[in-house]
Amino acid sequence: MGGGRVENDDNGVKSKKTVFVTVGTTCFDALVKAVDTLEVKEELSRKGYTHLIIQMGRGSYIPKKSTEEEGVLAVDYFTFSSSIADHLKSASLVISHAGSGSIFETLKLGKPLIVVVNEDLMDNHQCELAEELAERKHLFYGRPQTLNQTIQSMDLETLIPYTPGNAMPVAKIINRFLGFPDD
Amino acid sequence: MEKGDECCFSIMTMPNLVIILIAIFIISIVRILVVIHQSRKPLHSLPPKSVSTLIVLGSGGHTAEMINLIRVLQRERFTPRVYVAASTDNMSLQKAQVLEASMLDQAGSDKLKETAQFMQIYRSREVGQSYLTSIGTTLIALAHALLLMIKIRPQVILCNGPGTCFPLCVIAFLFKVIGIRWSSIFYVESTARVNRLSLSGLLLYKLHIADLIFVQWPHLQKEYPRTLYVGCLM
């Protein structure tokens, strides 16, 4: 996991560091608005990120697009895409809603992740997962209103890589229960 | 005279009817308890070569977890497989089809239709639907679930959380009680549930409908002692 500094390649050209924001199939305007604020964008630039790509899902808030300039984040957005996996792979930081699909996909790629909880959801059991994984230091966890503080205070070196789980124990118990012999 | 006869008739039959009803009631209760007791124990007899398996898929995260589980199950044992997903959810069955196709590629055969089937089921309640209209849609969903279950009669049911699985499991349990088909019901609680079971999980747990309930976080197992902790699937 890379640090927060701007990394220069051999030619001395500032390398591209992308922040990918994803809300999945949900509508999460509060998050899109939060990343579109000046404070958050400045904080991301300060941390060395150069590009911001927002997957805004079913939300109605349209962020401002901008091209790359010195010291300013380039911003782009789209609603849905079949290539979310590619965006995740090329990102240096992922900011995501609390859906378990997005969380585990990002963690398995070993990307630094900030999960932002959607407080507008009624049955908000999904924050349980993000809280637990944040306690285990696999990701950072925050709210839309305090996103810039979360970015400011995060130290990517403290993150512990996630070891993917495995369904073998369940399969074994089911096999035994049904009377199938162990392999 | 006639009046008196009628009177005697009803007096004579009433207690009989009540006794019959009570007897039926007691027999049903005993049968349900026997089924619950049997369900907890592993199957004793020699296993058949394979078991017909019903796999209930949910949306997004649920489906990803279930597919992780199917991937490690021996497909020659759990066959034929029937995948069921809500009719409003196109993605899940597609993912299952991709999975089945990839397993076929490994096996090098082309008998997809014999080993796997894909079906859709009406959802009893959409997210955000009012409780009043839910009653009607739930009845339709139940009737559809019953039709599907009569058709499939699986020996094993695998499910992991979407609301669609609850009516299917209840019907499977009733089949066990009546003696139509004995099926083993396995429920894997979603990894998103850290502190509390989901509504489906809780109902299957409290009503003793699932044979085994797996949870992915240790705290949850302590909260519900009859569950099995198996670590994270994802």
Task: Jot down its keywords.
heterodimer, A: 183 residues, alpha/beta, six-stranded parallel β-sheet, 6 strands, 14% strand, disordered N terminus, B: 234 residues, seven-stranded parallel β-sheet, 8 helices, 7 strands, globular
Write a structural description.
- Chain A has a six-stranded parallel sheet, with helices on both faces.
- With 183 residues, chain A is an alpha/beta fold.
- Chain A contains seven helices and six strands; from the N terminus they run E-H-H-E-E-H-E-H-E-H-E-H-H.
- The radius of gyration of chain A is 18 Å and the shape is elongated.
- Chain A starts with 17 loop residues before the first strand and ends in a 6-residue tail after the last helix.
- In chain A, strand 4, helix 4 and strand 5 form a beta-alpha-beta unit.
- Chain B has helices at residues 2-40, 60-72, 90-107, 112-115, 131-152, 165-178, 199-206, 218-223; strands spanning 53-56, 81-86, 116-121, 156-159, 184-188, 212-215, 228-229.
- In chain B, helix 5 (131-152) crosses helix 6.
- In chain B, 53% of the residues lie in helices and 13% in strands.
- The termini of chain B are far apart.
- Chain B has eight helices and seven strands.
- The mean pLDDT of chain B is 86.
- Chain B has 234 residues and is α/β, with parallel strands linked by helices.
- The A-B interface holds A 24-25, 99-101, 104, 125-126, 128-129, 131-132, 164-171, 173-180, 183 and B 42-47, 51, 60-61, 64-65, 68-69, 71-74, 77, 156, 158, 184, 186, 188, 190-196, 198, 211-212, 214, 216-217, 228, 230-234.
- Chain A: It holds the Pfam family Glyco_tran_28_C.
